[in-house]
Structures are given as structure tokens and as C-alpha cells.
Specification:
Blueprint: H1 2-18, E1 48-52, H2 60-72, E2 75-78, E3 92-98, H3 106-114, E4 121-127, H4 133-143, E5 148-149
Length: about 150
Amino acid sequence: MKRARTILLLLALLGSLAACSRAPGTSSRAEGVSGGEDSAVQSNRSPILIAYAPQEDGDAITRAAALLQETLGGDRMVLEDGKAEDLSSYEFVLLGFAAEHNVLPDMVQAFLEAGDLGARTIYPFVTGEGNDAAAIFSAISQRQPGALLGDSAL
């Protein structure tokens, strides 16, 4: 039941954002982002940023971020400690991470505190144990008080 609900919520998010995506364009690497291919901001010239904190290669968050980018387009960015990108060109931020008992990972906290998301809409996609959607939204809102919060993607 819980898995079916998760899939339905993800499909609802994908459907609501599909109108915002554009046809894939060229890929480019953003300056200031280091690491391998997954560390690149892969651009499809869309108002959507898919920012995520992977636990390990091929984990659920990484796979979900890739699926969201493939489905919606947008730019995919691996969160790194102390790295902040220019977020002014994005309207929507899909924020993926694994949390335990409503505690945001350090990389996610740093991203939210370093970047000014202003009136952008954040759609979290979260895995982990002991999480409550309202508590996750509250933790995000405390670090980005001006940002809007969309429905949970997972």
C-alpha cells in the first residue's frame, strides 16, 4: 500500500511538472562543480533543477534523480558541501535526499542555507526511516523561508 502511494505521488508530481519541461537540448557543465559525470549540472534548458544528495552510486535517490531528469528534462546537480550554484534561472527545485527521523543531511542543509531560492517551489523527494512529511517541510522551510513548498514527490 505504501509503495503504491509513493508511486502515485511520484506520477502526480511528474504529471504536474511535465507542462513545465521543454525538449531536451544540449548538455553543459556548470563552472564550480567538480567530480565525475554525475557531479555535472546537466542542462536541458528548463526551469527545473533536480538537486540531490546521493548516499552511494546507484542508490534510490540517484536513480530517482536520473528518472526525473529523463522524464521532465531540467538540470541535474549533485549536492556537494560548500558548493552553491546560481539558482536564479530555475522556477522549480526537486530536492532529493535520504533522511532519518526528519533530520536533513548536512549537504542538504548547506545547499539550502547557501543558495537563495527566493520564491521558487521546492519539491522534496526523500527516502529513509522515521520521516514525517510535515517535519521535512518544516526543516526545509526553516532554511529557506521564502521558498514555496510543493507536494512531496515520494
